[in-house]
Amino acid sequence: MNAQTVLASSGDEFKAPGPELFEFPPLFAGGPEWLTKPVVFAVFGSLVVVVFFWSAFANPKLVPRGVQNLGEVGYMFVRDQIGRPFLGKNTDQWMPLLMSVFFLIWIWNIFAVVPIIQFPIASHIAFPAVLAASVYFIKIYLGIKHQGPVKYFTNMIPSGLPLPVYFLLVPIEYLSTFILAPFTHAVRLFANMFAGHTILAFFSLVGFWFLFEKPTVAGFSVGIIGVLVTIVMTAFELLIQFLQAFLFTMLAAMYIQSGLHAEH
Amino acid sequence: MIQAASVLAAEENNPLIPHTFELVVGIFSFAVVMIFLGKVLTPRIQKTLAERTEAIEGGLERAEQAQQEAQQVLDEYKAQQKAAALEASNERRKAEEQGAQIIAQAKEQAQVEARRIVENAKAQIEAERQQALQSLRAEIGALSVELAGRVVGESLEDSARQSRVVDRFLEELEERARTQEQITS
C-alpha cells in the first residue's frame, strides 16, 4: 500500500485492491478478536474434509459404491503420485499424514473460488506455517530416530571432498535443510495463494468498477476485459490450487523420506 | 498523519507474520483432520484395499485351480476313452482269434474223424479181403487138386500130401503176385 493508492481511495478513481484484502475484523461487532472469517473457514475446511471422507471411508466396501469411489480416487492419487515415488515401501505408514495434508490444503485453496467464502485460507501464513512446521519436526524426529542423533547430521554432508569445500558446503547444507526448507515450504504455498487471491480480486474489481460502480463508455471495454480475465484466472487458479496442494504434500513426502533414510 | 497511520497498520498486518490465534486454529484444524481422516478413516480404506487385492488375487487363483481341475478331468476322460477303445479292439482281436481257433479245431477234428473212418474202412476191407482170400485159398486148393487129380488121373486123396502140394503152389502164386506188385510200384 503506497501513498498513491491511499490518496486514490478517497476519490472517485479506481483503486487497486492491496493487502487490506487479507485483513479481517471480527465477524460481528464486539466479537472476540480471533473470530474472523479465515478462522471460521479454516475450521470449516477441516470439517468438510472429515465429513467427505467419513461418508466415503466410514464403512468401506470391497466393491465400492458412490462416494467411496470418489474417495478411493483421491486416496489412489495421493498414494501413487505423491507417496510411492518418494516413500516407496514406507508409503502406507505415512498415508494418514499425506492424505490429511493434501486434502486439507486443497479444500482450503478451493475456498478461494467458492462463492461467499472466496478466500484462500492458506493466504494467511499461519496455516501453511503450522503444516510446514509439523512436517519439519517429523522430519527431524525421524532423522534422529532412524539415523542416530549424530549420524543424521553427518549423513547429509557428502564425504570425500577437499577440506576447503566443507567450509562452504556445511553451512549451506544446514541452512538449506533446517532453516530455508521449512520456510520455503510454507511460503511457497502462502505466496501462491496470496498472489492468486490478489489477482482475482483485482480483475473482478476492474469488472465491477467499470461496469457497475462507475459505468462509462470509455471504461466499458475495460470492464469486459476485467470480467473475461477473471473467468480465465479463476480457471487458472483452480489449477494452481491443486498444484500447490500437490507440491506441498510432495515436499512433505520428500522431507519425511530424507528423515527415514540418508540421501547420500 | 493518515499515511503514517496506514503504514503502521500495514506493519501490524505484515502478511508474513502469523497471527497467534490463527496458529492455534491451524493446529486445531490440522489435528481434527489428522484424527478423523488420518487415524480413523485412512486405515479403514487401507484395510479394504488390501482385502480387495486379496479377494481379486484369490479369485484369480480359484479360477486357475478350477481350470486345472477341468483339464485334469478332461485328461482322465481322454485316457479312459483311449483305454476303452484299446480294450474293445483287444476284445475284437481275441474274438477273431478264438473264432479262427474254433474253425481250425473243427477242421482238425473233421480230418481226424475222416482219417479214422477211412482207416476203419481200410481195416475192414483188409480183413474181408483176408477172409475172402482164406476161403478162396481153400476153395481154389480143393478145386485145383480136384482138377489136377482129374488131369493126371492119379488120386491124390491123401490129405497131407494134398495140402502140402497146394500150399506150395499158393506160396508160389503169392510170390509171383508180390514180385509183380514190386515191379509195378
UniProtKB/TrEMBL annotation, chain A:
CDD domains reported in the protein's UniProt record:
ATP-synt_Fo_a_6
Cellular component aspect of the GO annotation: plasma membrane; proton-transporting ATP synthase complex
UniProt topology in membrane = Multi-pass membrane protein
Q: Which Pfam families match?
A: ATP-synt_A
Q: Which UniProt keywords apply?
A: ATP synthesis, Cell membrane, CF(0), Hydrogen ion transport, Hydrolase, Ion transport, Membrane, Transmembrane, Transmembrane helix, Transport
ATP-binding found in the keyword field = no
- Segments crossing the lipid bilayer: 39-58, 94-119, 125-144, 165-183, 189-210, 217-236
UniProt keyword Transferase, yes or no: no
Which coarse location class applies to the principal site listed for this UniProt protein?
A: membrane
UniProt-annotated location(s): Cell membrane; Membrane
GO MF assignments: hydrolase activity; proton-transporting ATP synthase activity, rotational mechanism
Which family does the record assign?
Answer: Belongs to the ATPase A chain family.
> Entry's PANTHER family?
ATP SYNTHASE SUBUNIT A
Q: Which HAMAP family match?
A: ATP_synth_a_bact
Task: Please explain the role this protein plays, according to its UniProt record.
Answer: Key component of the proton channel; it plays a direct role in the translocation of protons across the membrane.
Query: This protein is called what?
Result: ATP synthase subunit a
TrEMBL record, chain B:
* Name of the molecule in the record: ATP synthase subunit b
- Name the keywords, alphabetized: ATP synthesis, Cell membrane, CF(0), Coiled coil, Hydrogen ion transport, Ion transport, Membrane, Transmembrane, Transmembrane helix, Transport
Where in this chain does the entry annotate a coiled-coil region?
56-138
Q: What is the lineage of its organism?
A: Bacteria, Bacillati, Actinomycetota, Actinomycetes, Streptosporangiales
Q: Its family?
A: Belongs to the ATPase B chain family.
**What topology does it adopt in the membrane?**
Single-pass membrane protein
Q: What does this protein do?
A: Component of the F(0) channel, it forms part of the peripheral stalk, linking F(1) to F(0). F(1)F(0) ATP synthase produces ATP from ADP in the presence of a proton or sodium gradient. F-type ATPases consist of two structural domains, F(1) containing the extramembraneous catalytic core and F(0) containing the membrane proton channel, linked together by a central stalk and a peripheral stalk. During catalysis, ATP synthesis in the catalytic domain of F(1) is coupled via a rotary mechanism of the central stalk subunits to proton translocation.
Q: An example Gene Ontology cellular component term from the record?
A: plasma membrane
Localization per Swiss-Prot or TrEMBL: Cell membrane
Q: Give the matching Pfam families.
A: ATP-synt_B
Membrane-spanning intervals of the chain: 23-42
Q: Which domain of life is it from?
A: Bacteria
**Which InterPro entries does this entry report, sorted A to Z?**
ATP_synth_B-like_membr_sf, ATP_synth_b/b'su_bac/chlpt, ATP_synth_F0_bsu_bac, ATP_synthase_B_chain
Annotated signal sequence is none
Quaternary structure and interacting proteins, as annotated: F-type ATPases have 2 components, F(1) - the catalytic core - and F(0) - the membrane proton channel. F(1) has five subunits: alpha(3), beta(3), gamma(1), delta(1), epsilon(1). F(0) has three main subunits: a(1), b(2) and c(10-14). The alpha and beta chains form an alternating ring which encloses part of the gamma chain. F(1) is attached to F(0) by a central stalk formed by the gamma and epsilon chains, while a peripheral stalk is formed by the delta and b chains.
Gene (name only):
atpF
Query: Which molecular-function annotations from GO does this UniProt entry contain?
Result: proton-transporting ATP synthase activity, rotational mechanism; proton-transporting ATPase activity, rotational mechanism
Q: What is its main location?
A: membrane
